[in-house]
Amino acid sequence: MSTETLDQSGERSLRGPLGWWTRTREFLTEVRNEMKRVTWPSQREVYATTVVVILTSVFFGLYLFGVDLLLNNAVQWLFQRLGAA
Question: Which DSSP letter does residue 26 get?
């Protein structure tokens, strides 16, 4: 009961109740083919990049903690100096 039509690119596409099944199958086939072409990192590379991400996160976390403490102390000093709160 599906009807075959031409879309704007000139390719044939199925519309109707069976069209989604065909498009889904084509999509999954293309995904499988593309996944075969992927160059996957080795376990060593994954470990190294994970360590870099963790160390960078810790560094910036400590840096922002220090900046927050500094700014908090500066604002408290300013409030005390001006006599507020």
Answer: H
- For the ranges 11-20, 35-44, 56-65, the lowest mean pLDDT is seen at 11-20
CB-CB neighbours of 13 under 10 Å:
14
Taking CA atoms, 43 is separated from 37, 40, 48, 55, 57, in Å, by 18, 9, 9, 18, 21
Predicted TM-score (pTM) of the model is 0.57
Q: Classify residue 56 as exposed, middle or buried by CB count within 10 Å of its CB (0-12, 13-18, 19+).
A: exposed
Beta carbons of 12 and 4 less than 8 angstroms apart: yes
Residue 70: both structure tokens together: 């500094």
Predicted local confidence at residue 27, as pLDDT: 94
Give CA 26 to chain center in angstroms.
25
- Beta-ladder partners of 12: 6
